[in-house]
Design the sequence.
């Protein structure tokens, strides 16, 4: 009897694996087909074809308002197959990080409830010219805000340190700054009511703020950012100048103190986890 149950279990496991393999293969094929069609659409657009010609040729709508979303049979099968065990991906309404201020999702220490890292990244959107450079280099940290066409941080340290530094160094107008957490909160709260003249990307925004006369329809003045308190040199921040105005660069004593504390706590936590793991191994 046990043998029969065991055989049934093996058959069920094999069927489960076959289902996953089938779903994965169909999903990969679907994604490849969609990617190929998207490339063809872009190519036809570059050649000057209008939306109607593209739609009739490729059978796709180039206007998002014309897109129709049919049930994804592969995805539905996947949800059915994982419904009983609870295994699988999150299928609810996920939060759109581009609609959330980055300081709200900063990782914090479980004990102190303070941010694990004290150094944050912020874009001076009044200075930004919308070149998309940072959003292309560090795609898990920056995105292009649709309202003003400027770059913005949606997730602090979404990319590794080196990638973010490259994005900062290659910014043509040096509009990306390292700031402390408290300043990040202030800047993002102030930014809620900003009104940037998007037509003046290469012009001093302050001139427009002053001449507009203020008010709801007037353009807001540039924000006060610590990184703008002094001139930045070439290759900032990689040169690490002692008097660099950006937080965490050079010899900022407060930053160095917090970084040392962070690294010490991290080392202790890793040591504790290692010892606990070794103790469990001994018990086994």
Sequence:
């Amino acid at each position: 009897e046990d043998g029969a149950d065991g055989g049934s279990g093996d058959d069920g496991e094999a069927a489960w694996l076959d289902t996953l393999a089938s779903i994965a293969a169909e999903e990969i094929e679907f994604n490849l087909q969609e990617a190929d069609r998207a490339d063809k659409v872009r190519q036809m657009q570059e050649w000057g074809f209008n939306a109607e010609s593209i739609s009739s040729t490729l059978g796709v709508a180039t206007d998002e308002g014309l897109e129709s979303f049919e049930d994804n049979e592969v995805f539905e099968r996947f949800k059915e197959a994982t419904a009983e065990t609870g295994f699988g991906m999150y299928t609810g309404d996920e939060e759109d990080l581009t609609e959330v201020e980055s300081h709200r999702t900063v990782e914090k220490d479980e004990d102190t409830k303070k941010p694990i890292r004290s150094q944050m990244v912020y874009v001076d959107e009044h200075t930004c010219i919308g070149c998309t450079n940072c959003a292309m280099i560090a795609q898990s940290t920056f995105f292009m805000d649709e309202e003003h066409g400027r770059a913005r941080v949606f997730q602090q340290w979404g990319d590794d340190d080196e990638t973010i530094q490259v994005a900062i160094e290659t910014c043509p107008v040096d509009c990306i700054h390292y700031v402390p957490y408290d300043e990040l909160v202030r800047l993002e709260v102030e930014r809620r009511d900003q009104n940037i003249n998007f037509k003046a990307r290469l012009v001093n925004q302050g001139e427009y703020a002053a001449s507009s006369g203020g008010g709801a329809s007037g353009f807001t003045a540039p924000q006060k950012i610590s990184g703008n308190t002094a001139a930045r040199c070439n290759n900032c921040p990689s040169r690490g100048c002692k008097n660099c105005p950006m937080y965490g660069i050079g010899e900022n004593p407060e930053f160095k103190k917090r970084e040392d504390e962070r690294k010490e706590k991290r080392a202790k936590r890793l040591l504790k986890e290692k010892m606990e793991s070794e103790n469990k191994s001994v018990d086994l």
Remarks:
- The chain has a mean pLDDT of 74.
- The beta strands are 119-123, 142-144, 151-153, 176-180.
